[in-house]
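ingest -> fold -> write
write: protein_1
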Amino acid sequence: QVQLVESGGGLVQPGGSLRLSCAASGATFYAVGWFRQAPGKEREGVGCISSDKITKYVDSVKGRFTLSRDNAKNTIDLQMNSLNPEDTAVYYCASGYYTDSQRCAVVEADYNYWGQGTQVTVSS
């Protein structure tokens, strides 16, 4: 059974940085995606990292967000830089299995297991 727990959210000023972490027990061979949901909006994708550490990002976060994972520790980190108020949301990590260990997609339907979310607020 895969279990996911996010941490690291909080309040940050515009232009600042935060590092979110996802503790993913039982997910060593799974891809992990990050998604976010802003108040009053649909949940949207942020990026994903395959079990072989291949990463993908949506355009709005490219160059600002970086995914990494430590398979020995079963942790997946999302480093977020140059944050702006539009990044305010609840951030979720999710895991899903791909037969190709280099593949992942930022598509909610591909992910079976979800964490509870962590709040990120970007405000001065």
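write: protein_2
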Amino acid sequence: QVQVVESGGGLVQPGGSLRLSCTASGLTFHYYVIKWYRQAPGKERELVAGVTSDGGRKNYAESVKGRFTISRDNRRRTVYLQMNNLKFEDTAIYYCKAEEITTTRGYWGQGTQVTVSS
């Protein structure tokens, strides 16, 4: 049974930092691209960052470039999203998605809440 689990969300002040983690089990982790999405209240889910199966390539939404860093540790079956200089508009539920590299079949986590507030 495939499980994708996010953690690390919380309440932080503007300018603060958080590190989210996404751990997957029940699948061959190094065969999967991992993407972070977020969904703010009343808005559609948007792609925030992604990393290839070997960690060699990364991409970011324009709104988070220079502030967020995605990384992965295949031995720990975990992908991280380091979020610095957080802004009010980063408030959202953050979701992790594992996508198989050949079939693009995807598995979602349950999400973790990030709230940026003073």
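write: annotation protein_2
The chain has a mean pLDDT of 97.
The chain has no helices and eleven strands.
pipeline exit 0
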